[in-house]
UniProtKB/TrEMBL annotation, chains A, B:
<dbReference type="InterPro" id="IPR036390">
    <property type="entry name" value="WH_DNA-bd_sf"/>
</dbReference>
<dbReference type="InterPro" id="IPR015422">
    <property type="entry name" value="PyrdxlP-dep_Trfase_small"/>
</dbReference>
<comment type="similarity">
    <text>In the C-terminal section; belongs to the class-I pyridoxal-phosphate-dependent aminotransferase family.</text>
</comment>
<dbReference type="InterPro" id="IPR015421">
    <property type="entry name" value="PyrdxlP-dep_Trfase_major"/>
</dbReference>
<keyword id="KW-0808">Transferase</keyword>
<feature type="domain" description="HTH gntR-type">
    <location>
        <begin position="1"/>
        <end position="69"/>
    </location>
</feature>
<keyword id="KW-0032">Aminotransferase</keyword>
<dbReference type="Pfam" id="PF00392">
    <property type="entry name" value="GntR"/>
</dbReference>
<dbReference type="InterPro" id="IPR051446">
    <property type="entry name" value="HTH_trans_reg/aminotransferase"/>
</dbReference>
<dbReference type="InterPro" id="IPR004839">
    <property type="entry name" value="Aminotransferase_I/II_large"/>
</dbReference>
<dbReference type="InterPro" id="IPR000524">
    <property type="entry name" value="Tscrpt_reg_HTH_GntR"/>
</dbReference>
<dbReference type="GO" id="GO:0008483">
    <property type="term" value="F:transaminase activity"/>
</dbReference>
<keyword id="KW-0238">DNA-binding</keyword>
<keyword id="KW-0805">Transcription regulation</keyword>
<dbReference type="InterPro" id="IPR036388">
    <property type="entry name" value="WH-like_DNA-bd_sf"/>
</dbReference>
<dbReference type="InterPro" id="IPR015424">
    <property type="entry name" value="PyrdxlP-dep_Trfase"/>
</dbReference>
<protein>
    <submittedName>
        <fullName>PLP-dependent aminotransferase family protein</fullName>
    </submittedName>
</protein>
């Protein structure tokens, strides 16, 4: 990372944490140069970048100011406890009708689960593909199926090491995307009828998997900023025979919430006390806006209780279908179950990703991607403040590419979804994120696509529909 | 196909069917030229090819003769009915210990489930990969996940059409290999505890899947040449609440048996009468040695009862992990289940295969592959006749790359497996193909690798171990 990028990240951190409040003047170039011990031109470059990311604003002859919407133009939603027992899940039909709506490429994709493909280094990946397939020994197309590509496992173990997790490569099972990893983990630690603790709201695929495997959901409310309510989780673990927890500890989908280091420690202590395994769905881990990557619960796991699932689908190569799980004490069972169901993800694709990780400039790409997403978040927040009713609430996640909106009570987000779709705009209505069909006045919007006039117009249309309720 | 290749195939058919008996003289070049209306040089080329494939033998000054082992040097095994009820399945540990033994590349791979990678056009596939990924529109990496690559679906539908099956491309669900397709099909039509009719012996993965899904096996005996016993199947369907049939109608693994057209019609009539869906595992379909491809049961299916599963893993691209299912009336459910478990096989790999099918010369490759396999079969049969006890029985399949050996009663194939492995030779012992651990004196040997001195020596070693029992 260049010096000016680091400086920009530091100042962005001050803005996010509220040290620099909205409307406040940021240090002059001369002062900043002195404080940070860098040249004035480095400060200028950093300020240009922050302006570009929508965080500060130049005012003629008075310097730079923190943008009003860079803090929080709309208040945060609040998600309290509701159901206390276990719930059968039946949400699949609704989810599929939403997913079907995304097929038309002309729809404004606020409902999408992926960032724009234009943000990914597809051409560079294609080169890695062409190079690696020529270098792949013929017998590898068969032997790599059982074990996964050894280079890819090594590269992944290296990345874990950098983020503070020491893993033998053998603990890693390469899967057909994180979705397969999550499915395998859950099957290894549960039987039909078992109880599983999940988040509320939860990623809709979590609900679909529970439904499919005939598992019962114990919903743990998620605070929009700090993540799951550990007090409620502790109660549920004490009262109910919960067989597994399935949580996203960083940039939770759909809220974008993250547990801080202290909460992660307390969560792991709970798992240890009850000897309940946790499936840590960490597919947004690389999409942090801060300076440091968040450390997963897995980094605390000295008992092998945590199955940590990752993927390239959200940060590098959607559609390549390569994910993995660091399976802890369950790694061998997960690997066997995988061999019995899909055998392996594509071997040449694994080789291509290994080549890219080694030579492709992955970290450079990730820095660009994070900045793009942070900029787009600022644009969507600003746009929402312009077009949505002032009593709308919205999250302000420190990573990922989703905002969660809580509209006034009378808004029915399933109707909103239908009306918006009729005008060529997709969104993900709240009820698909709940086993109990809560969040009827909420919606998840994707800011993973470069912001343009069409996005702005779509927000205005949504604002009008919301106001009409 | 060239004229001389067609002629060779016709004569090979006469040999296989016994019209031309072992030791018998094949028509002289002059006679053959007259009978078939081709030039003498075409006949010579055909005879050279047949000699190369191990079917005929030139004797100095007396012409060509059918080789002794080209017919059947060892008699066929016989597989009778045994268990009549439904059986819980528990075979996985045994299967994994066999699969583990295959990891060492120095082992003679008679136990392998795949042909040699050297028989596949990996370099040409790499070119298709490089070309197609450059041409892939960015948004396809996301949209193709739901529907599968449209070109690949079209190419597959075309190939079905040529083999007499009319399919709308929408009925095709592209999967992570046939293994995923088979798993999905079974889950769509069964609940835990249900009864499923399978073959005895059966492909071991079938048994593992039943075990995993807690389904009960109803074993239908397979005749080594003609396939499942329809009389017994009819009885079982009448007596037991069987929810699905899972059969390989052509080149069954491990026996290599195929149902002829008439038996396929009778099988389909049974399915219709009882309205029981059939999962048709047809992954060896392209590896026929005859002139005509076998037509699947799916070709008779006007009610959508048959889920026809195919794959590129055995005939073109192992390790690419692309298979499919023509799902009949279950296609939509299968597709949804796939979206909930792995979402999709790799999108760029699908594009590469679509490109190869269109431009790569797939049919030319398949002809070469079939001839190589047929030649290797002749070599292994001849070698078995030289080295194995004369009361050994063996199949003589018309396609695929497996021979099934039935050794004298006192041979314990699990011990044989261990002793052979200690000498660097793998094989697939009989009990892994049975829910009831039958076939203790049988083994499946893979002839999918080019025959060489090492193969011959390995057969001699196996012969000595067998004789020692």
């Amino acid at each position: 990372m260049k010096r000016y990028e680091r400086l920009a990240d530091e100042i962005a951190g001050l803005i996010r944490s509220g040290v620099l409040a909205p409307g406040e003047r940021v240090p002059s170039v001369r002062n900043a140069s002195r404080i940070y011990g860098v040249s004035p031109s480095t400060v200028f470059q950093a300020y240009y970048l922050l302006e570009d990311r929508g965080l500060i604003l130049a005012r003629a002859r008075s310097g730079y100011f923190v943008r009003e919407h860079a803090q929080r133009p709309l208040p945060e939603p609040e998600i309290g406890p509701r159901s206390t027992g276990a719930t059968e899940v039946d949400v699949s039909d609704l989810v599929f009708s939403v997913l079907d709506s995304l097929k038309d490429p002309n729809t404004v994709p606020f409902g999408s689960a992926f960032p724009s493909p234009d943000l990914f280094p597809l051409a560079r990946l294609a080169r890695s593909m062409a190079q690696s397939i020529r270098a792949l020994p013929p017998h590898a197309v068969i032997t790599d199926m059982t074990t996964g590509n050894p280079d890819l496992r090594r590269q992944l173990a290296l990345r874990y090491m950098v983020s503070g997790v020491m893993l033998p490569p053998e603990e890693l099972v390469i899967t057909t995307g994180a979705m397969e990893a999550l499915n395998l983990c859950l099957q290894v630690v549960t039987e039909p009828g078992d109880l599983v603790a999940i988040e509320a709201p939860a990623f809709y695929a979590t609900l679909q998997v529970l439904e499919r495997l005939k598992l019962k959901a114990v919903e743990i409310p998620v605070h929009p900023r700090d993540g799951i309510d550990l007090g409620i989780l502790a109660d549920r673990l004490a009262q109910l025979p919960i067989k597994a927890c399935w949580f996203m500890s960083s940039f939770q989908n759909p809220l974008g919430a993250s547990l801080d280091a202290e909460k992660k420690r307390r969560l792991y202590a709970l798992l240890q006390r009850h000897q309940v395994p946790m499936i840590e769905d960490d597919v947004y881990a690389e999409l942090y806006f801060g300076i440091q990557p968040p450390r997963p619960v897995k980094s605390l796991d000295d008992e092998g209780l945590v199955m940590h699932c990752g993927s390239f689908s959200k940060c590098l190569a959607p559609g390549y279908r390569v994910g993995w799980v660091a399976g802890g004490r369950y790694a061998e069972q997960i690997s066997r179950l995988k061999l019995m169901t899909t055998i392996s993800p594509s071997v040449p694709i694994q080789a291509a990703l290994a080549d890219y990780l080694q030579h492709g400039g992955y970290d450079r790409h990730l820095r660009k991607l994070r900045h793009a997403l942070e900029t787009q978040q600022a644009s969507m927040l600003a746009s929402a403040a312009r077009h949505f009713p002032p009593n709308t609430r919205v999250t302000r996640p420190g990573g990922g590419y989703f905002l969660w909106f809580e509209f006034p009570q009378q808004v029915d987000s399933l109707q909103l979804f239908q009306q918006a779709l009729a005008q060529g705009i997709s969104l993900a209505p709240g009820p698909i994120f709940s086993a109990t069909r809560r969040f009827g006045n909420c919606a998840r919007l994707n800011y993973g696509h470069p912001w343009d006039v069409r996005s702005e117009q779509a927000m205005a249309v949504l604002g009008r529909i919301i106001a009409s309720f």
